[in-house]
């Protein structure tokens, strides 16, 4: 095995954390990992996965942007879900640039595997960010206990209530959407 840092994936593969390419991305690894990672570091009233969050974000977007929404947190399959407060603390301690670079490198490999440009054009990032913040607002209302004010302003939450899925359903929903929006996706092939 290489001397570079790597992580063993759910499918038993070695994913290089530095220098990953599209051929290193396994969609089953991504889906299973995202489905087993809980949002908000697990500080929710019920288990709620990153995969379900990605599906929620994607489903809010126009059809040509949905794949971008589905993949917006896909890097977390390989490097974990780092909360916004943690990222802020890392920046304060001088480690934020390193985390940003690692996230960018992994996102670049994932988006290349999906046949998508990364970083995305500004208008795509803006639409995905708005959907992500709308999901966050809805998740805060439906999945977190009442707590201190967060500061800043979030968009209005969705009118529907989030019902958390078991990880297996979240994985299936994520893979289903990947298959619809990226029809040639199998374990390792790129989307058209």
Notable features of this structure?
192 residues; mainly alpha; Hypothetical protein af1432; 49% helix
Named CATH topology? Hypothetical protein af1432
Q: So how many helices? A: 8
Overall spatial form: globular
Oligomer: single chain
Descriptive overview:
The protein contains eight helices and two strands; from the N terminus they run E-E-H-H-H-H-H-H-H-H. The protein is mainly α. The chain has one domain: Hypothetical protein af1432. It has a two-stranded antiparallel ribbon.
Explain the layout of strands and helices.
Blueprint: E1 6-8, E2 14-16, H1 27-36, H2 50-60, H3 66-71, H4 76-79, H5 84-92, H6 96-113, H7 122-143, H8 167-181
Q: Could you write a compact summary of the structure shown?
A:
The chain is mainly α and 192 residues long. It has helices spanning 27-36, 50-60, 66-71, 76-79, 84-92, 96-113, 122-143, 167-181, and strands at 6-8, 14-16. It has a two-stranded antiparallel ribbon with strand order 1-2.
